[in-house]
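Protocol step 6 of 9: fold each sequence in the batch and record its structure tokens directly after the sequence line. For illustration, a two-sequence batch is reproduced in full.

Sequence one:
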Amino acid sequence: MPSTKQVQVETLYADHHGWLRAWIRRQLGNSFEAADLAHDVFVRLLGRPAAIETREPRAYLSTIARGLLVDHWRRRELERAWLEVLARTPEELAPSPESRMLVLEALIKIDQMLDALKPKARQAFLWAQLDGLRCPQIAERLGVSLATAERYVAAGLRQCYAHRFGDE
């Protein structure tokens, strides 16, 4: 017997999938990617523990789709940047295709992790990790107290730890 949620998703799919796919296609300009993302919207609905909003179904579906589009564009931008780095890499130093995919997947995970941080915490963490700045320097640059700068860097470290060990 299908659950109430499954029935709701099936109804939303039957009533609005075509519209949603067309809406996403207009955003992307690509019907194949639009079909994949429209499908992902409904998969995401099935995975949600919360009830499904059905009063304004198109607004609800387009809100979910917008989030997936942002993720899609960010992934595309990361992939483009990685391909630019690879293009500048001498052939003899170029990683294998498997290594290329592993690095891209890691970059996507790092991007997601950083995106979960507040902007100042993200900036503080990046300055600490990439530029080697100490918390007093970060505090000065951000115009915050030393304790706040330390909390920001710690938040980034907690995110890293959660991503690394949270799935185990």
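Sequence two, same batch, same settings:
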Amino acid sequence: MTKAVKNRILYQLNFLKTIGYDYHSTIKFTNKEVSSNSLPNDMEELKNVVENCYLCELSKSRKNVLFGEGNLNASLMLIADEPTASEDELKSFYVGKTGEQLVKMIENVLPLKKEDVYITNLVKCKSSNGINASAYNSCSTYLHKQIELVEPKLIVTFGEKAYQYLCNDNTSFNKIRGQVMHFKEYQVVPTHSVSYLLRNPSSKKEAFYDMLKIKSILELN
């Protein structure tokens, strides 16, 4: 968040506080006011910016900000749609049933350690009813900056929304799942979300073959 945006937010918050409001109404700032060029070229500094971001409605209900973690020089970057309830509660990735399943997918199939990859989400705060385009648009510049700083050889998106919002592509997920797609100059392989696999165990075979393709792409690079 730029100083100008932050100062405008603080000004409105302080004004509302003086007239008796406990919180503020929606402030119509958009991510257009936070350009990639205005963001720091250091992941730790970027994390600090994101953890102090209040650009969208999700900031009102979050418990924690889930920025991202892992190898900053990773060949593989994993992107889900939003933090899970367990991640939001514990401020950590790879927790809960979805986290345990994801670790198995990474370490048993690829095979890599979870510390070898970089993981993040489209949005950094947990939603109450699923993310929408507005929330993603507010957070997208942060995500794009993370991708720019990591420069992965391959991005894997988990779930339909993660792929559609990142790549701005509304093609049927069944048609593109497991295929090599593109975001800017990066290769992207969409696969099922881990939570979907837990609800639909019969789809784990499809995800297994997707992971084998991911493994082969990484070995070629």
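Proceed to step 7 once all outputs are recorded. Observation for sequence two: The longest helix spans residues 133-150.
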